[in-house]
Design goal:
The chain has 411 residues and is α/β, with parallel strands linked by helices. 43% of the residues lie in helices and 14% in strands. The protein contains 16 helices and 15 strands. The protein has a 13-stranded mixed beta sheet. Strands 14-15 form a two-stranded antiparallel ribbon.
Length: 411
């Protein structure tokens, strides 16, 4: 290894595979210089993860380890968790995107209870759902070391979400928690609100894109009315719209609140909201992020468009077929966003249902089928125009890429 004398070694996407992991693990056993090891996206799989885990049973210097997107699976996770029971040096661990499922929660929970050093853990982009939520929720509640936890982009909802929130409720150490992109819905929002009423340590919470409506916002708002510790709340990309935004801001507008950042990304607000925001900012230091102001027109950045339109000034539900096709050709992103916003949908769910290999890409036929399943009313010709417009870049590879929609906030 050329960087054997460095404190940080980054080997992202080097195609190491299991044998490459073995090759670097051998010299790292006795290395005393490297403190941070980044092996993201190397297809290490279970075998490669086991080599790294064995090395870390002997190496007492590496404190920051990134094993994200390596498909380590259950066997690889077991090796890592077994290592964590005895390793007292790893403080930051990234296991995101490793195809971890409910059955993998037990060794993780044991590691969280046994390890006395792990400060930051990233478990995002995995497949945890109800059972994992129940198991991990108990471990979160008992853990007294972890300060930063990321469970975003999983399937933690209903009972699983409630169990996680119960753990957060009694946890006395966690400072930042990311549970975005899980589909909590209003029941999950109520459970999270109960946690916020009782937790006196959490400083930053991200529950963006979780299907939370104005009913769920009322629960969160009541929690914020009594919470005196939370400084950052990210709750954008939820379908609570302008009325929910105003409800939330009114609850935040109290002397007890120490909230410094309220992130309502992709949420439009009313003029009344903006007036209250300006009034609040005169007396306290608070940053409030939102999409634009609704009146007769939506004002967003340097552009303006009709509040019910796809960007061309016409209501999408009252367009003629020809007008809709023109819009699809000129601005397919805006048309799709208008459909999704008006129907409180999440494009992520379409992708998750049909994206079997989890590479966040769909073929043209898969994407068209998903759009139909989501209830977006386009005929075959209009669907062809939409797909052709979305896959019109220089590569034109026959796929619709989810990253395109993230860039434009259509999620």
């Amino acid at each position: 290894m050329r960087h054997i004398q460095c404190e940080e070694v980054g080997l992202k996407h080097h195609g190491l595979g299991p044998m490459g992991a073995k090759a670097i693990a051998i010299p790292l056993v006795t290395n005393t210089n490297i403190l941070k090891l980044d092996l993201e996206g190397n297809w290490l799989e279970a075998e490669g993860a086991a080599y790294i885990a064995e090395m870390l049973k002997e190496n007492y210097y590496i404190s920051d380890l990134n094993l994200s997107n390596n498909r380590i699976g259950s066997k690889g996770l077991y090796a890592i968790c077994d290592m964590l029971k005895t390793n007292g040096y790893i403080k930051h661990l990234d296991l995101s995107g490793n195809e971890l499922k409910d059955g993998d929660a037990d060794p993780l929970a044991e590691a969280l209870l046994d390890n006395n050093k792990l400060n930051e853990l990233n478990l995002s982009h995995n497949d945890f759902s109800k059972l994992a939520g129940e198991i991990l929720g108990h471990a979160i509640g008992e853990n007294e070391i972890l300060e930063h936890l990321d469970l975003s982009w999983n399937h933690l909802r209903r009972g699983g979400a409630a169990a996680i929130c119960e753990g957060i409720k009694v946890n006395a150490r966690l400072k930042t928690f990311n549970m975005s992109w899980n589909g909590l819905a209003d029941d999950g929002a109520a459970a999270m609100a109960d946690a916020l009423k009782n937790n006196n340590m959490l400083r930053e919470l991200d529950i963006s894109n979780n299907r939370i409506t104005s009913e769920g916002i009322k629960h969160i708002g009541k929690a914020l009315d009594v919470n005196e510790m939370l400084e950052v709340l990210k709750i954008g990309k939820n379908p609570f719209r302008e009325e929910g935004a105003l409800i939330l801001l009114n609850f935040v507008n109290n002397e007890r609140s120490v909230l410094k950042v309220l992130d309502l990304t992709d949420v439009f607000v009313t003029k009344e909201f903006e007036e209250l925001k300006k009034e609040m900012q005169q007396s306290r230091d608070i940053t409030i992020i939102y999409e634009g102001v609704l009146g007769n027109w939506v004002l967003t950045g340097k552009y303006a468009k009709n509040a019910n339109s796809c960007g061309c000034g016409m209501d999408i539900d009252s367009m003629s077929s020809n007008d809709l096709e023109d819009c699809l050709q000129n601005n397919p992103i805006a048309v799709l966003k208008a459909w999704i916003d008006k129907r409180n949908l999440r494009l992520l769910d379409v992708f998750n249902q049909f994206d079997k290999d989890k590479n966040m890409q769909l073929t043209h036929e898969e994407f068209k089928h998903g759009v139909k399943q989501a209830g977006i009313n386009l005929n075959e010709r209009q669907l062809d125009i939409l797909v052709d417009s979305l896959d019109s870049g220089p590569t034109r590879d026959g796929f619709v890429d989810y990253k395109l929609f993230q860039e434009f906030g259509i999620v």
